[in-house]
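Hello,

Our lab assistant flagged a job as stuck in the queue for most of the afternoon. It eventually completed. Since we weren't sure the result was trustworthy after the delay, we are filing this so someone can double-check. Below is the sequence as submitted and the structure that was eventually returned. Let us know if re-running is recommended.
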Amino acid sequence: MSTADMLKVRSNNTCELCKSTDSLAVYEVAPQEQNSKDNTIYICSKCEAQIEKKEELDSAHWQCLTETMWSEVPAVQIVAWRMLNRLRAESWAVDNLDMLYLDEDTLAWAKATGDHENDGSVALHKDSNGNILKTGDTVVLTKSLDVKGSTLNAKMGTVVKNIRLVEDNIEQIEGKIEGQTIVILTKYLRKQGS
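-- returned structure --
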C-alpha cells in the first residue's frame, strides 16, 4: 500500500488539520530524511497554501486546531504546534499552545525549521493598491518606465499580460512588453480589474 493510500485510510479521506474533503494531497513535514506515513500528513490545498506562506494566514480557518492538535500522529501535532505559534497573537492559539504537550523528540522536530520563531505574517507580491498578485495575472503600469539596458520606454497604462512572480523578491514581477521580458517593480503597477 502506498503512503498516499495509507494516509487516506488514516485520515478517513479528510484533511488531518481542518477536516475538509476538498483538494487533498500528501504533505511532507520538514525536515525529514525519508518520506513515510509517520512524517507526512494528508491536508487540503487551503491548509497547504497557508502553511507554505503562499496565502494570508486566516485565523478563523485555523480554529480547527483546537480539535485536531490532539491527534495521535506526531506529524499532525508538529504542524498544529507550528501553526499555533504563527497565530500566537490570538488568545485562543496561546491557550491551545499551553495545553499542547509534545514529547522531547517531537518538540525538537517541531522546532527544527525555526518557523515557530517567526510571526504569522506572509510576504506576498502586491500591487500599488495592495491587491495580491499571482502568476498569470494581467497588470497595468501606473507610471511610465525606462527599461535599463534598452531603448524601450514602457508608457503608463501599458497592459502586461501573463506575469510571473520573482520568487525571492516580493517587490518584483516579470512581464513582456513589446516582446521583451523585463522586471517591473510591483509599486508601479496595478492588477487589472482591481
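-- support follow-up --
The delay was a queue issue, not a problem with the job. The result is valid. The radius of gyration is 21 Å. Residues 47 and 111 are 19 Å apart (CA to CA).
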